Known about the structure:
A: alpha/beta; Aspartate Aminotransferase, domain 1; Aspartate Aminotransferase, domain 2; seven-stranded mixed sheet; B: Aspartate Aminotransferase, domain 2; 3 domains; three-stranded antiparallel sheet; 35% helix
Amino acid sequence: MSGYAPHTERDIQAMLEVIGAPSLEALSSVPDGLELRAHLDLPPPMPESQAFAHLRRLAEANQAARMTSFLGAGAYRHYRPPAVSWFATRSEFLTAYTPYQAEASQGTLQAIYEWQTYISLLTGMDVSNASLYDGATALVEGVIMALHATGKRRVAVSLGVHPMYRAVLATYAAGMGLEVRELPMDERGLTVCEEQALDGVSCLAIQSPNFFGCIEDVPTAARAVHAAGGLCIAVTAEALALAVLQTPREAGADIALGEAQSFGLPVGYGGPYVGFIATTREHVRRLPGRLVGETRDVDGRRAFVLTLQGREQHIRRELATSNICTNQALCALMATVYLATVGSHGLQAIAATNLERARRLRDALCALEGFSQTFAAPFFNEVCIRTPVAAERLAARFYEKGILAGLPLSRFYPGRDNDLLVCATELTSPEDIARFARAVAAEVPHAAVA
Amino acid sequence: MRQWPKEGVPLLFEQGAPGRGSRFVEDAGRPEDFLDPALLRRRLPLPDLAEPEVARHFTRLSQRNFSVDGNFYPLGSCTMKYNPKLNEAAAAYEGFTELHPFAPDAGAQGALHLLWDMQRWLSELFGMAEFSLMPAAGAHGEITAMLMAKKYFAQIGQPERHVCLVPDTAHGTNPASAAMVGYRVVAIPSTRRGRTDVGALRARLDGATAVCMMTNPNTLGLFEDDIVDITRAVHDAGGLMYYDGANANAIVGLTRPGDMGFDLLHLNLHKTFSVPHGGGGPGSGPVGASERLARYLPQPLVTRRGDGGFALEWDRPDSIGPVRAFWSHFLAIVRAYAYIIVHGVEGLQANSRLAVLNANYVRARLKGVLSVPYEDLCRHEFVCSAEDLKRATGVRALDLAKGLLDAGIHAPTMYWPHVVPECLMIEPTETETKETLDEFVRVLSSLVARAREDPSALAALPLHTPVRRVDEAQAGRLANKGIGLRWEPPAADASPNGT
C-alpha cells in the first residue's frame, strides 16, 4: 500500500475489526475544520529506482565536491579509512536509540565510554561528555558552564575563534542576556589578552590553532583569565592538532571543547559533525548532555550506563544544565572507530604529514612574486597568505579553473582583502600544490590587470 | 539462548600493542621537525591496534545492542520506524560527502536545490511560511524558536513577556529550552481525558505570557481537540504558540500545525522522516515559522535567485543569526529528502494512518492485560499503566520492560509522562507487521500472567541480555566525584598497551 509499511488490505481489515473502527480514514480523522484541505505542492511519489538516480544527479551537480581543494576553515578533508564507516554504520549501531535501556545498549554505551576516554586523553582533561552538536554549540555550552561556575555574565572571546562559532555565541548571548567582549589580534596573528579586557569575565575562550591557522599562547591567556577570576576555555576547530600540540590541560585550560569532524567524518556540506567538551573533575556536574559511567550488573559483570542524569532535561526540566537531548552518538562512534583504526602512531604520522604539506604549500606560494605569509606565528595545517590582488577575486578565478583556492579572510574580517586562508592535509599531494602554485603564477599578472 | 561472556568486550585501551596498524601516510618526519618542542605535547597515550582487532571489537560491541533492524522497538515518543537503505546510499554519494561548506554556491547547486526543496516541502506539509533546516536536533530547534520569540517580543516592544506555558505531559526539553532564554516555566495540568486543561491554561494567560509550547498529539498519544481554542486564547493574550513536532508522525498529510494556529514549530527528521537515530544522534530539527515570525529564522536560508540558481541567503537583517557552525545537518537532510520523494504526500499520509492503526491495534489488544487509562482512541502511540498489577503483585512497569528485553523486544518508554503512574508508553510505528504486533501482545500478556503467578520471578529479569540489571546508583556515586567516566591507566603505567 505504501513505501515501507508492510500492511496488506487483509491486515488492515482484520486490525480495524479488532479496534472496532469502520475505516482507516475514520480512525485517523481530526476534529472538524482541521482536516487538510490545501493542495500541497510536493512532487508525486517516485519509484525507488528513479529516486536513486535523481539523488545521484543532485549529488553530481555539486561540481565543487570534485575539485582540488585548499579549503579548511573549520571543515577538514582528511583520509577516512573505509573501516570507519564500515563498522560504525552497522545496523546495530545505526538504528538504535539513545541507550536508556542499559541491558539492551551495551554496544553503544561502551563505545561512548571509549569516546569519552579518547577525548580525555587527547585533551588531557579528566572527563568528557558523550558529544555535542558541533564545535560552535560546544562553545556555547562551555560558556554556560563557566557562567554557572562563576556567576558572572560577561564573556571574553578571542577574535581568533572561528567566526561562525562566535556568531553562534552571539545568537545565544542576545537571548540569554550575556555580554560578549571580543579580544583583538596582534600583527603576529595572536590574541591580545589585556588585563582590562578580562575584568569581571566568567571565562576567556581562545582557539588554537586559531582561525588564521596560528598556534596561540594558551598558557599565557590561561594565567591572565585565572588572575581575573574566570575560567579558560580552550577551543579546537581542527581536532587533529590535538595529536601534536601541547594539551589544553597542560596549557592551563579548565574546559576543552571543539569540533572533532577531522576524526573520520566527511565535510558533508557542513554536517553532521561532532562537538566535544571536556573538563576537570571539579566541574563534572556542570557538564551538559549525556555521560556514560562504568558500573556492574547484578552478576558482577562490567557494565556501562547513562549516569548523572539528574543534570539532564528529562529529569530536571527547567533546572537542567542544558536542554540537549539527542546529540551526535553515531558521529562520536565514527570518531572512536577512526581513532582506534589509526592509533597513536598513525595519528601522529598523519599530523606530521599535515605539518609538512602545509609548509610545502606555504613555501610554494610565498616563492611567488608579491605573495607572503600574513602572520609570523607558527601554524599547523592552515596558514594565511598575503596576496597581491584581492583574495576574493583570486578565489573566484580559481574556481573557474576547478580549484578551491582557500577562504578569503575578508568574508569574516572586513578590511583583510588581501589575505587568503589555505589548508593542506595528508590528502593534499605535492602535485596538487605544484599545480596550484603554477596556476597562481600564471593567473596573478592577469588578475592584477583585470 | 545465547550465553554472554562474563568479562564482556575489553576496552580498546586494554587491547593492542605499540606500533600496530600504522600504514596511512608516507613518513613525513616528526612534529618537532616542524614546530618548536615547547609547543608540543609530551606523549600521545592512545592505543595502537591492528585493523582486524578493530573489526572484531566493534562487531562484538554492535552485537550487544538492540536496534530497529534487529528488534521491535516500540519506544514511545521516539518513532523508531524502519530506516530505508535508499537514504543511506544517497547520503554516501561523494557529491554530497565531499562538498565543503565554504564551496562557492555555484559549485554546490545540487545541495542547495535539495535544501531549497526541503524548506518548501516542509512549509507545505506543516502549513508554515518558511523553514530553516539549520537546527541539529529537536531540542536545538526548541531553543532556536525560543530565541526567535524573545527577539520578536523585543522588537514589538513587549520585552516584559517572560512566561512560558508548558503542559505537564510535555517533553523535558520544552521547559529546559524555555529556561535557557530566561523564561519562567509554568506547568499546565492535564484533564482526566488526558488533554491540556483549557480552563487552567486560560487562567494563566496575561500580559506576561510569551509562549505556549504544545505537542499534538500529546505525549499520551491523544489529539488535543481544543487546540484551536487554545491557540486563539494564547493569541488573544498576545502570546505565541509553539508546536513540538516530536509526535508529528501521527499527522503528516492529515492536518497541519499552521492551520491549528501555531506560529513556530520544530520537527525531528530522525523520527518522522526516517533518519536513523544512530544510538542518540545525529538528528535534525528544522524550525518552521508563520508569516510574522519568519524573518527571525536563523540564517543563512537557501533562496532561489532570479536566474533560477540557488544561493545561501545571508541578508536577513532580523534573523537571530546562525545557531550552529554550518548550514544544516546536511547528510541527515539528504536522508529525509529521499524519504519524502519516494512517498509523496499520499505515501506520507498513508504512513500516518498506518502508524495510528498499529498503535490502536496494540492498544485494543492490550485492554484487559494492563489498564489503559484513557478511553479515547489514540493516535500513533498510547500509554498503559501497570499500577493495578503493582498493587496486586508488586510487579512494576520496570519489571515488565526488562522482561520484554529477554524476548528480544525493546522496552517501551517507561515512567513518563509522569501524570500516569507505572506508565508504559508504546509507539509501534507504521513499519511493523501485524505478526510482530501480535507477538508483542503475546509476550507482554504472558509476562503479566507470570507476574500474577510468581511475582518474584520478574524482578530477576532480564536473564539473557549481554548484561543484566545494572547498578545505576554505584555509577552515579562515582561519577559525582568525576570517577568511572573513562578508562584510567593503571597507576604504574601511564598509557594504553604499556608504552
